[in-house]
Amino acid sequence: MLTLTLTTTTNLGPMLEQLAVRARLVAGETPPTDTELAEVHDHVAKQLDVTRAAQAKALKTQLGDALPKGIRLKKVDSARDGLTLTSMTTLELDDVSLVPEVVLAAAEGQPPLKPFAGFTVKQDKTQVTLTGRAPTMPEGAGRLALTLEPSSPPLSHNAASVAGGALAWAGNGFDVKVVFAR
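Structure (tokenized):
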């Protein structure tokens, strides 16, 4: 048994500010003042609060329908700090060999995302090894974190941190290697 949590953190502030400046310049106006940008931030933040719960509910439904056998949705959650959004999806897997099969919901009308499709699981008589490179987010788009909570401690790992048996990696395009006893 393995619990996998994928967390993405995205700061919408810089993108929102760039859009506000471009819109004003295209309209032949001066760039927005700091006060006007603060008003835009507040307006967008309020909209995010309204849509966050509905999006989480839709994601649960969409993911529940897309998950392969042996993978169950445990929790979908999100948080907002200003214009920084953090989305957490926690799955329960019957076996580590299912990590490459993990699917996540994509944009409407798009096929589900498989962020760990490039991961490999090698098994021999005594151990199971999970290796792979986490997806790379576009420059400035945010931060990705992966937490694995195995039901028994691994023989070895390259996790950036460990807390209470949970192995954690974070960054952009990080390498993962975990060796479990069979």
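The beta strands are 2-11, 71-81, 84-93, 120-123, 127-133, 143-150, 156-157, 161-163, 166-171, 175-181. The chain has a mean pLDDT of 88.
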